[in-house]
UniProtKB/TrEMBL annotation:
This is RNase adapter RapZ. Keywords: ATP-binding, GTP-binding, Nucleotide-binding. It holds the Pfam family PapZ_C. It comes from Aromatoleum diolicum. The lineage of its organism: Bacteria, Pseudomonadati, Pseudomonadota, Betaproteobacteria, Rhodocyclales. NCBIfam families: PRK05416.1. The gene is rapZ. GTP binds at D57, V58, R59, S60. Residues 1-152 form the RapZ-like N-terminal domain. InterPro entries: P-loop_NTPase, RapZ-like, RapZ-like_N, RapZ_C.
Length: 292
């Protein structure tokens, strides 16, 4: 079991860090009281979870002082426990609270924001000493996400789903497409009466398209483009990247290429393959039959 404990100053980016780990597949819990940490870990262990990220901070109240001891106790039973402590300069924290108009958890009518930040520093001093310290003063949110993933050894594409979606141009370009490739220039099985009823997933169409050198060249060009740029899209902390492949009707060429591309990336990233227009064709056919 691996546990990542996130703590730090309010406004330092704990929510950003926790979300980055959740997107990478960790079971994430925010604002956990420190005295419930051991109970949470025990329950999630019984439930079969192996990667857990927990945010514990000054919102725990007085029992936050017990967190270092709780961490020491957990290390005896957990194989991999890491503590990340996020910090920032006082002027940066004050500016962030001013921009978001959020109230500091320790601020009251009698305690100013600056005084609340100092009280929080004092309360978290012992925790700061046992954690991996990250100063977020000059970091953008995307940079912090990348640093958290680097620290945890999470690959750039972990947490990202790559979807290949075939479609027919005559039905319009999918609104959710991030990248669109037009393959209408390739030989069209539609003009062969024997192939017309089939789709790009059927063996007769597959054999026809695989016999065309330009189809192989197009497939490789798209594969190479996506492979080269996928790490950059992943560093942008996307959850999905949708690659749309379009032919005239979305039945033959685009379906074949989307399926082919899905197989090429299946071992390196989470992949989904969807056939937008082919599904529409089946639906329309079924609706027509039902109406007879």
């Amino acid at each position: 079991m691996q546990i990542v404990l996130i703590s730090g100053l309010s406004g330092s980016g704990k929510s950003v860090a926790l979300k980055a780990l959740e997107d990478a597949g960790y079971y994430a819990v925010d604002n956990l009281p420190a005295n419930l940490l051991a109970k949470l870990v025990a329950e999630l262990r019984r439930a079969g979870y192996v990667r857990i990220a927990v945010a514990v901070d000054v919102r725990s109240g007085a029992n936050i002082a017990a967190l270092p001891q709780k961490v020491d106790d957990l290390r005896k039973t957990v194989g991999d426990l890491r503590v990340i402590f996020l910090d920032a300069r006082d002027d940066t924290l004050i500016a962030r609270f001013s921009e978001t108009r959020r109230r500091h958890p320790l601020a009251t009518d009698d305690v100013s924001l600056a005084e609340a930040i100092q009280k929080e520093r004092d309360a978290l001093e012992s925790i700061a000493e046992v954690g991996h310290h990250i100063d977020t003063s000059d970091l953008q949110a995307n940079t912090l996400r990348a640093w958290i993933k680097d620290f945890m050894g999470i690959s750039a594409t972990e947490g990202l789903t790559l979807m290949f979606q075939s479609f027919g141009f005559k039905y319009g370009i999918p609104l959710d497409a991030d990248l669109v490739f037009d393959v209408r220039c390739l030989p069209n099985p539609h003009y062969d009466a024997r192939l017309r009823p089939h789709t790009g997933r059927d063996q007769p169409v597959i054999e026809f398209l695989e016999s065309q050198p330009e189809v192989a060249r197009m497939c490789e060009d798209i594969r190479s483009f996506v492979a080269n740029w996928l790490p950059s899209y992943a560093r942008d902390n996307r959850s999905y990247l949708t690659v749309a492949i379009g032919c005239t009707g979305g039945q033959h060429r685009s379906v074949y290429i989307a399926e082919w591309l899905g197989r090429q990336f299946a071992d390196s990233v989470r992949v989904l393959v969807r056939h937008r227009s082919a599904a529409r064709r089946v639906f329309d056919h079924g609706a027509g039959a039902a109406g007879k």
